[in-house]
Design brief:
The structure is a single chain. With 250 residues, the protein is α/β, with parallel strands linked by helices. The strands form 3 sheets. It has a 6-stranded mixed sheet with strand order 1-3-2-4-5-6, with helices on both faces. Helix 6 packs across helix 7 and helix 6 packs across helix 8. It is elongated, with a radius of gyration of 22 Å. The protein starts with a strand and ends with a strand. Bound molecules: calcium ion. Calcium ion (CA) binds next to loops.
Length: 250
């Protein structure tokens, strides 16, 4: 049977919209464990206990909303009615690119290879640790998100992606929350990689000619931006200080 679980609000570390995950698993205990752990991570979870239900559900949902309702599918292989491999094969045949993580009791190399051959993105063998499963889900979702973004017209430098149209920034696959000035600064930097900007030039470009204040404002905003972008703000790899001149990006 298919059950639609009420989505919980995303947890604080999950900025932006919560990812939606479909869990297809016929073992009640494992299914419930997955639901609890994934919801704790802030994901919206929907479950199906057999292949046919999952399939009907996927197809109907797509017909009514005109968009695919899931960001990730966690798929058991041994399922009643339609098995996991067939389900995955069918999805790919229909051109559906949703990431699929196979969770299976089968652990032979053949099954693993077969799973990946029919278009699954990752494979984990039961029994598995929930922490590992969550880590794999995160990685798949991150990869998917970056892929989606790169299909739009965006600016990219290493693992930072900026969409001017949507005023959004993705840092290592996670959405960053930037103030309008920080965003404008980053957009300017990313539009001209390695160009050196003086503080005065940055003020002209970002704050405009009617700016009142001093150039320290720039330094403060750079510090904030570094805290949001850099792995180690003390050793910046993106926004570099050029002594005596100002800043450059990359
Ligand atoms: Ca099973």
């Amino acid at each position: 049977m298919l059950s639609l679980d009420m989505p919980k609000s995303p947890s604080s570390h999950d900025i932006g919209q919560a990812s939606r995950i479909l869990v297809v698993e016929d073992e009640d205990l494992i299914r419930e464990m997955l639901v609890v752990s994934l919801e704790e991570e802030g994901y919206k979870v929907v479950t199906a206990a057999d292949g046919r239900t999952a399939l009907t559900f996927l197809q109907n949902a797509e017909l009514t909303t005109n968009e695919f309702p899931f960001d990730l599918i966690i798929l058991d292989l041994m399922l009643p009615q339609v098995n996991g491999l067939d389900l995955c094969r069918l999805l790919r045949h229909q051109g559906n690119p949703v990431p699929v993580l196979i969770v299976s009791a089968k652990d032979s190399e053949t099954d693993r290879v077969l799973g990946l051959e029919v278009g699954a993105d990752d494979y984990i063998t039961k029994p598995f640790s929930m922490r590992e499963l969550i880590a794999r889900c995160r990685a798949l979702l991150r990869r998917q998100r970056m892929g989606d973004w790169l299909q739009q017209s965006v600016l990219q430098y290493k693992d930072i992606i900026l969409s001017s149209q949507e005023c959004r920034v993705l840092v290592r696959g996670e959405e960053a929350s930037l103030s309008p000035k920080e965003f404008r600064l980053l957009e300017l930097f990313m539009s001209y990689p390695r160009r050196v900007w003086s503080r005065e030039q940055l003020i002209d470009q970002v704050w405009g000619a009617d700016f009142v204040g001093d150039t320290k404002t720039v330094d403060v905003h750079i510090r904030w931006l570094r805290e949001k972008l850099e792995r180690d703000p003390g050793q910046p790899e993106y926004i570099i200080t050029v002594r005596g001149f100002g800043y450059r990006f990359g």
